[in-house]
């Protein structure tokens, strides 16, 4: 019997690419999205079932899980991919905007996971894969709110992992590259979030804009493919490995974060983000 994966946020990006890849590998795919009319990036395949799921709507989460199980007979893996980035100066972000960022990136993933866990527990098996970011390990300027949501996602996943081991359930994290995955270069001024500009920050914005502009050439050209392959590895390798960091662009700064002293790390990141 083919295994089945449920993926949130499959209308585009990592979600659509992951759905298509797993389907090509013979998996049954429950491809979920807020608006099912936006399914044009999915391959036409008999083993892709498209259904509506809004991570901010608990009823739609429960309904999608039931529909997916009824359609394919089981769910073996859940990928919490749905998310977005709020970019700009923290002081410019309203409380409502920050709340929505966490509602989608953190509480949405928690609600999907909470909804699937009784089913996984009854089967004594299952894998939960949460799509984080390099910004989930490193606080990037202009992305303090986004980073904090991904930090929360990673801390929750790591703690959850211990709770689920004895039940045969694994929880895993994918960390795509920061510059590539978060779209800093096109959003460095916070325009996409509709944030108000505070003039005192203009010198910083000019300086950091140059920094991120210089990163345009560092993103992996095949980043989406690498991320999709990492998700597939996490779903199939049969290990309890927690983190997968598939793109090369984020590895130097991840290495500095995790393998050097705090002083060395701060000096390194200051040289990147505070260079004159």
UniProtKB/TrEMBL annotation:
Keyword annotations: Oxidoreductase
PROSITE patterns cross-referenced by the UniProt entry: ADH_SHORT (PS00061)
Pfam families, per database record: adh_short (PF00106)
Top-rank lineage group of the source organism: Bacteria
PANTHER family, per the entry: SHORT CHAIN DEHYDROGENASE (PTHR43976), SHORT-CHAIN DEHYDROGENASE_REDUCTASE FAMILY PROTEIN (PTHR43976:SF16)
Family classification: Belongs to the short-chain dehydrogenases/reductases (SDR) family.
Name of the protein described by the UniProt record: Short-chain dehydrogenase
Source organism per UniProt: Chryseobacterium wanjuense
